[in-house]
Amino acid sequence: MRPAILTLNAGSSTVKYALFGDDGVTELSRGTLEETGEAAMAKALEVTRTAEVEVVGVGHRVVHGGVTYSAPARIDDAVLATLESFVPLAPLHQPHNVQGIKAARAAFPNVPQVACFDTAFHRTRSFVEEAYALPRRFFDEGIRRFGFHGLSYQFIAKQLAVVAPDVAKGKVVVAHLGSGASMCALNGGRSVASTMGFSTIDGLPMGTRTGAIDPGVLLHLLDQKHMPLKELETLLYKESGLKGLSGLSNDMRTLLADESSAAKEAVEYFVHRCAREVASLATAAGGLDALVFTAGIGERSSAIRGRIVRKLAWLGLAIDDAANGRNSTLISTRVSRAKVLCIPTNEERCIAEAVSERLKPG
Ligand code: ADP
C-alpha cells in the first residue's frame, strides 16, 4: 500500500480532509464534509481506510498556537493539553481542532501527528504589531494581536519564490479573501503585519464577521442595550459582514449578481476596506513590490480584484483587465509600480509538507 499523509482541518462548520504522498507534495485526494463533530470525523477517517493507502503521518490545522508555537509541533499528551488550554482564546474553533486530534490519535495510535498553527507564521512580527495599547500586563498575559490564516500565507510566500522570484524577497501584501478574510504584509517572505488580531473577527469585513469595529459599540450594546454576551458573540461572528450589510447572503457570488442597493453597498464596503488595508500594510512593510490575491474571492473574482486595484491607482497600481479576467498569475500591466498576482492557496499542502519534513529520519 502506498504511504500517505492525511491532513485534517476540523473547522466550525466543516471538516476538510486530504491525502498526500509521503513527499507532502503529491495530492492523492481531498474532500469536504458539511458537518462537524464525531460523526463527521469518523466519516473523514473512513475515507482513508478505503483509499488503499497506509497513513504514515497526520497533520492537523489548529487555529491557535498561542505565544508558545512559532512552528508545527509533533503532538503528544503534553502538547494536546497545551492546545486544550488555548480553547478560551478561540472558543468557536479550537474545540473542533482538539476533537479532530483526539479522533485521529484514536484511529491511528502509532502514527506521528503534527499540529500546524494559523498563528505560528505571524510570530515574527514586532512588538508594535503584536501589542495593543493596553497596560503592559495584558501583553504579558497573552492579550495580543496573534494574526491568523498563517498556513495560507506561508504557502503563498513559498509559491512566490517559484512564480515571482523577483518580488519574493521584497515587500508584499497578500490578500486572503475567502469566507474568512485577512491580509498579511510580508518582508523577505516573513510576516511583518496582519489585519487579524487577538481573534478572527478583526480587520477586513468577512462573510458573516464584522471585521474591525470600535469597541465602544460593543460597550454600548452590552451596557445600554443589555445585549446578552452570547447574542453579541453571534452578532459579531455569524450575523455581520457581507451577510449583515446586505441582509441577503454571505456569498460574494450572490451579492455580485444582485441588483439591490443593499447588496451593492455590502460589496462596496468590502472593496473599500480591502483597499484601505493594502495601503496600511504597505506602510508596515515599508513599501510595496507586489500585491497577491488568494482564497475563494481572491482567486476567482476578477470583478473584486479589479475594483480593489483601481482604488489603489494613486499608489501606481494598474490592472491588466484581460489577464485579470482570465485569473492569470500576473494580472498587472507593465507600467504598474508593483506587480499584482493571483495565486491559488493550498493550506492542506502546507500542512502535508510540514508532516513530511518531520517524518524524515534525523
Ligand atoms: P473558506 O474560508 O470557507 O475556505 P473560500 O476560500 O472557499 O472560503 O471562499 C468562499 C468565498 O469565495 C465565498 O464568499 C464565495 O462566494 C466566494 N467565491 C467563490 N467563487 C467565486 C467567484 N467566482 N466570484 C466571486 N466570489 C466567489
Walk me through this protein's architecture.
- The protein is of the alpha/beta class and 362 residues long.
- It folds into two domains: 2-117, ATPase, nucleotide binding domain (Nucleotidyltransferase, domain 5); 164-342, ATPase, nucleotide binding domain (Nucleotidyltransferase, domain 5).
- The chain contains 16 helices and eleven strands.
- The chain has helices spanning 38-50, 77-85, 94-107, 127-130, 136-141, 150-163, 165-168, 215-223, 229-238, 241-246, 252-256, 261-285, 295-300, 302-311, 321-325, 347-359, and strands at residues 2-10, 15-21, 27-33, 53-62, 73-74, 113-117, 171-177, 181-187, 190-194, 290-294, 339-342.
- The strands form two sheets. Strands 3-2-1-4-6-5 form a six-stranded mixed beta sheet, sandwiched between helices. It has a five-stranded mixed beta sheet with strand order 9-8-7-10-11, with helices on both faces.
- α1 packs across α3 and α6 (150-163) crosses α16 (347-359).
- Residues 178-180, 207, 251-253, 256, 295-297, 300-301 line the site of adenosine-5'-diphosphate.
